[in-house]
Amino acid sequence: MQMPNSIKLFEKLIIWSLVIGIISGLFFPLQPFPADATPLLIFGGLLFLLGFEIGLMLLVSRLRSVIAKWIWIILQVLAVALFIYDLPTNDYSNPSTFAQFIVTAMGIYGTILLFTADSEEWFLSKQREKLQRLLR
């Protein structure tokens, strides 16, 4: 089965949300870096989170992992809850606040795309392929 457009759009949304998040975080950080944190530690943490998010996205979109899909959904719900929790304390003069809103909206839309009819068929087709291999 060919990858549906909703899954392709999911990948594009997540990649672009990562790009927007990284650019806004580098140029307009919402919080100052801790004094005791070394740049290497901050860079390492950023690389770890970036790799984790890209890896989870690929598990969902390319390997059609239902477990990864639900982990993605749980993490997205937590991200939205954190965004709503931070709304009263955000500095609205900082462009990064607007970028954070855009990234959150892209994540919500990407998560919704995982529940379209063609996406559901995409995940079910993996199960059918496994069954066909077992029956051969």
TrEMBL record:
The chain crosses the membrane at residues 9-28, 40-60, 67-85, 97-117. The keyword Membrane applies. Keywords: Membrane, Transmembrane, Transmembrane helix. This is Uncharacterized protein. It comes from Pseudovibrio denitrificans. The lineage of its organism: Bacteria, Pseudomonadati, Pseudomonadota, Alphaproteobacteria, Hyphomicrobiales.
